[in-house]
Amino acid sequence: MRTLGPATRTVTVGVIVALCLVAFSGCDYEVPITSSPTRKIDDRLLGDWVSKDGKDRMKVRKLDDFIYVCSFNGDLLQAFHSDVGQTPFISAQYIESADRKYMYLTYTISADGERLVIRPVNTKIIPVETKDSATVQRLLQDNLQNPVLFEEEGEFTKEK
Question: What is the pLDDT of residues 55-77, one digit of tens each?
Fold first, then answer.
């Protein structure tokens, strides 16, 4: 797994990442990590992004001070920051499906704001059968040092 160097690494929780997650896994969870946003949106996430291989495109927009609206390859999501302790997470909800399930992820954004790396949460570590946010938060907290907490990362570049 590739990570950014300390000089270019800024860890934040961005709802934008939520829509990136769609590229790597489905919406599996019935509840968000937190019942409401834990912080305001990160303006650095707003804009148009393209995957490293050029196959995936996403647009991230501000709905209000706390909620993002994202389009990932045409699919619509809403997302918000769901920090657990000092770790930034995103709760993203696919809003066009009947069941409106959530996905969980984290991300890093480069210091210049031009490179975004997302990592979806592994459903083998946080089971999809988990039905309440408090349990999700506890499981995340208990597994923060677990190297398999996250799925394979995806890299995006901001379009000019």
Answer: 999 999 999 999 999 999 999 99
83-106 b/e (C-beta count within 10 Å ≥ 16 → b): bbeeebbbbbbbeeeeeebbbbbb
Residue 131 CB-density burial (10 A; 0-12 exposed, 13-18 middle, 19+ buried): exposed
Q: What three-state secondary structure class fits 6?
A: helix
Query: What is the gyration radius of the CA atoms in the chain, in angstroms?
Result: 14
- Span 22-38, mean pLDDT? 79
- For 9, other C-beta atoms within 10 Å of its C-beta total 13
What is the helix (H) or strand (E) element at residue 20, kind and residue range? helix 16-21
How wide is the angle at C-alpha 50 spanned by C-alphas 47 and 53, nearest 5°?
170
- Distance separating alpha carbons of residues 125 and 121, to the nearest angstrom: 8
